[in-house]
Write the C-alpha cells for this entry.
Amino acid sequence: MELAVGTPPVTVQALFGISDLCWVECTPCSGCNNNAAPPAGARLYDRANSSSFSPLADTECGYRYVYGATDTDRNYVKGILGTETIKFGSNDAATVQSFTFGCTNTVYRNDLFDGNTGVVGLGRSKLSLVGQLGLDRFSYCLASNPNVASPVLFGSTASMDGNGVSSTPLLPDDANYYVNLLGISVDGTRLAIPNDTARMSRTYEAVNGSGLLCFLVDDASKNVVTVPTMTMHFDGMDMELLFGNYFAYTGKQSGGGGGDVLCLMIGKSSTGSRIGNYLQMDFHVLYELKNSVLSVQPADCGKI
C-alpha cells in the first residue's frame, strides 16, 4: 500500500497485516531501510520536519511489536505514538487528519519487511486503520505471482459475487479475527486432530522443535512433483487449498549440491494457530465486520 505521511508529505510503501497498529519508519532510525540501499529518491519520514505531527501525550508513549518468532526477542520494531495527517491510496484517495500512528525508530531484522517502510494494521482494535476509520468491511487478494498486484479494498468497493463464494462466522474478539476450524482433510481423508488444537485459548504447552518440513527435489523431478489436495473445514465453509497454498520451493540445496528444497509452509506456533499468507494466496478474502462474517472465493487477484 502507498501512503503519504505528514506535511509536506513523504511517500511510504507499506505492508498491510491483521495487526492493531499502523506505523512507519522514522528518521533517525536504527536498522531502517535508509541503512540498506533504499530505492533511488526514497527517504524516511521525519516528524521534526512535519508541521502536522503531534505527540500522543506530554510524555512519549512508546511501543514495541514483535513479528515472526514471537517466543524470542527477534524481529521487532519500536518507537513512539503520535498523530499525523496521512493520505491513503493513489492520487491521495482518502486524507485523514489526526490519525494515530507509530513512528518507528528501531527495526531489528529489517529483511522481514521486504524493503517496505511501514505496516498498515487492519485488526479489530481502535488503533488499527479499520478501527480509526470506522470501516464495516474490507477485502484483499494475495497473488501468488510476484508480478501481479495484491489489491486491498475498503468499504463499498469490498464485495464479491459469482461462483465459489463460501462463508464462516467471525468469532467475537476485540482485537483479532478468529474463525472456528473444525478439521483438516488431506486427499479426502479427515485427519485425526484433537478439537482443542484450534481453540482460541491455549490448551497444551508448546513442544520446542524444529522448523518447516522440507524435501530435496532433483531438477528432473521438479515439474512432475504432485501433492495431495488439502481442505480446511470451517463452520459452514470448506476451503480447498492448492499446491502453492501449502508447499513452496525455498531455494537450492546448501553446499552446492543439485536439486531444489521443497518445504511444507505450515509450521509450529507457540502463540496460537494462524491462517498465514501462503494459505490465503489466490483467494479473495472479505471481512464483513457489521455482520461478523468472513467470506472467501478462489480468484485471479489481477482481475479484482
Observations:
- The two ends are 16 Å apart (CA to CA).
- The longest helix spans residues 129-133.
- Confidence is low (pLDDT under 50) at residues 34-38, 202-210.
- Helices lie at 129-133, 243-246, 277-280.
